[in-house]
C-alpha cells in the first residue's frame, strides 16, 4: 500500500501529466527501487489516473492487473498503430526485460498527455560486468555479457532534460517544462491533421508520369494515413484501380483504416477496398513482381503506392519503377527500425539515374503529439535514433581496436560510430546498439582519421563447443544464443564440424559513404584475418542480404558462398547469403568442403526454389564454381543453337556449361548476354517468363535473342 509520501508524489505526477497534456506532449518517469516496491508505486499511479488504454510491458504478466493490459516486449510490434495513455515498462527484476526495440516502438504509440514509466533497479548505473557472465555457451570467448549499455542508459537518464526521476529512497524530481515552441498553422485540409500531411496527399493525388514521389517521415507523422487519404480521393475521383504494396499486409493497416473511415459507402474485400467501380488492392511484393513480369499489371495509367519501401529489395523497386510510370515510395527515416537507410542505400542512385525528375516530400510535423515533445527527444537520444557519421576526412586513417567500456563513455564517438553502421546498413535497430556494447564476444575495429571513425568492423566469436554440446546442438536439443553461423552451417549446410570449430562472424562492416572504394573495407578485413590467425580461429564468415555488388566485395577478399536462404528475409527482402574464408588449416578444409557442397546444390536451387533470384546474383554465385569445361559434344550443341539448327531447350546442359565457363573466365556479371543465358539456363525463366522479363513481343524474339547471346558468348569464350 503506497504511503502518504507516495500518494503526494502520485498527485504531483498526475499534475505533471496534465501540464504535458495542455501542451500535447508526453513524458518519461523513471522509477528505481526494489522490484515489489517499484511495482507497487507504478500500480498506484496506474489506478489513480484516468488513463486511456494503459499497458504494462513485462516478460511476465503483472499480478493484480487484467491480463489484457499486459504485453510481452517481444510482442511490441503488434501494438504499432495503436494508442496508449500510460505505458509501464518493467525492467526492474530482469535486465533482459529492457528491450530497446520494444521501448522505441511503444514510445511512438503513447498519446499526448501520456506517461511512459520505466522501472529499473537502482544500481543500473553501477552494474558490474560479472553479473552478466553466463559463459557456459561461449566456451572460448574472452568476455561475457557486459553491462556497458545499461550503465550508459542510466547515465543518459540522469543527464537528459525532461526525465522525471522517482527513486525509492528519495524524492520525486520534477523537471520544469520548457516553453513550448509556437504551434505550426493548422492544416486547411479537413481530412489531414497537419499541413505536411495535406501537402503529401495533394502530391500523391497528382502523381505525374516518370516523376516518382518519395515520401519520407519519422514515425508518428501520418505517412501511411496520407496514402489512405490519397487513395480515398482518387477513388472518389473515378480512378478505377490503385495498387498498393508493402513488405507485410499489417504495414498497410493504417492506410486501409483511413480509407474505410473516409469512404463509408465502400467495402473491404480481403486485402482490397472497393468503392463503386474503383478498387484499391494490396499485393505482396512477390506477387506484384510476378504480375508485372507477365505484363498483367503496370502501364501508363496505373498507379502504384509502395509503403515501407525501405524494406523491399531495391531490385524489385527498380522493376516497378520501370513498369509503373506513376509511382510513389513511402519510407520511414530515423524510425526505431532505422529502416529508411536501406532505401537511400540501395535504391536512390537508381532512382536518380532512371527518373532524374523524381520529387521528394518530407513529413516532419508530428500527428499524435506537438512539436517540442520531450519524450520523442529523449527516446531519440537514449537509443541514438538520429546517429550520423562524422565527416569524411582526407587524413590517412589509423587502425584501432575500440574498447567498449571507453566507447560507452564517449557519447560523441559512439554516436559517430553507430551512425556509420546505421548509415551503411539496411536495417539497424536500437537493439543493435545494445549488442554492440554488451554482446558476448563482440570485437570492434575502426579506421579512424583524427578522432572520427571512417570505417568500422564488428565481429563476434562463435562455435568452439565441446563434443557433447555440439552433439546436442546438432540434434536440435539445444539452441545456444549468438551462434547463428555455427548453427546454420551445421543445420542447413550439413557441416557439424562448424559447431566444434572456432568461428568468427563479421556482424557488420561499414565504410563512410564518402570513403568507399578506397580500400578501407579491404584493410579492415585483412587486418581481421590476421588477428583471427593470432586468436586461433578456423573460419571467418559473414551473413548478409545477397546483392551483386556486396558479393563482389566479399569475393574480392577471398570469401566464398556457402549457404543461401531459400526465402527472402522479411526485413531486407533479400536472400541471406553466408560467406566464409579460411584462417587455419582446419578452416581451409571446412571452407573447401562447404563451398563444394554449395556449388553442387546451386544449379538445382536456381531452377526451383531460387528461380526468382536476381540473375546478376545468380551469376555472381555461379561464378565461384569451376563449372564443367564444355566438351566436344557441348560445342556441337552450342553451335547448333547459335546457328539456329536446334531449339535452345534441347541443348540446356551445353548452354549451362557455356554460361559457367564465361563466368569462371571473369566475364562481367552485368553482361546482358550472360544475364539472359543465366536466367534461361539456370533459373527456370523459360521462354514465357523471358517474354515478360525482356519486354519483347513473343517467343520468337526471345529465341532470337537467346541464339544471339549464345553466338556472342561462344565467340568470346573460344
Ligand atoms: C556482414 C555485413 O556487414 S555485409 C554489409 C556490408 N556493408 C554494407 O553494405 C555497407 C555499405 N557499404 C560499405 O560500407 C562498403 O562499400 C563495403 C564495406 C561493402 C566495402 O568497403 P570499401 O572500402 O568500399 O571496399 P574496398 O575499396 O576495400 O573494395 C575492395 C574490393 O572489393 C570489391 N568491391 C567493393 N565494393 C564493390 C562493389 N560495390 N561492386 C563491385 N565490387 C566491389 C572490389 O574488387 C574492390 O577492389 P577495387 O576497388 O580495387 O576494385
Automatic annotation (TrEMBL):
Short name of any one Pfam family annotated for the protein: GNAT_acetyltr_2
Molecular functions (GO terms): 18S rRNA cytidine N-acetyltransferase activity; ATP binding; tRNA binding; tRNA cytidine N4-acetyltransferase activity
Alphabetical UniProt keywords: Acyltransferase, ATP-binding, Cytoplasm, Nucleotide-binding, RNA-binding, Transferase, tRNA processing, tRNA-binding
UniProt enzyme class: transferase
Keyword Membrane (UniProt): no
Segments forming domain N-acetyltransferase: 442-583
SUPFAM superfamilies reported in the protein's UniProt record: Acyl-CoA N-acyltransferases (Nat), P-loop containing nucleoside triphosphate hydrolases
GO cellular component, one term: cytoplasm
Residue sites binding ATP per the record: 197, 368
Major localization class: cytoplasm
Residues binding acetyl-CoA: 509-511
Any one Gene Ontology BP term: tRNA acetylation
Entry EC number(s): 2.3.1.193
Catalysis performed (reactions): cytidine(34) in elongator tRNA(Met) + acetyl-CoA + ATP + H2O = N(4)-acetylcytidine(34) in elongator tRNA(Met) + ADP + phosphate + CoA + H(+)
PANTHER family, per database record: N-ACETYLTRANSFERASE 10, RNA CYTIDINE ACETYLTRANSFERASE
HAMAP family assigned: tRNA_acetyltr_TmcA
Purpose: Catalyzes the formation of N(4)-acetylcytidine (ac(4)C) at the wobble position of tRNA(Met), by using acetyl-CoA as an acetyl donor and ATP (or GTP).
Family, per entry: Belongs to the TmcA family.
Name recorded for this polypeptide: tRNA(Met) cytidine acetyltransferase TmcA
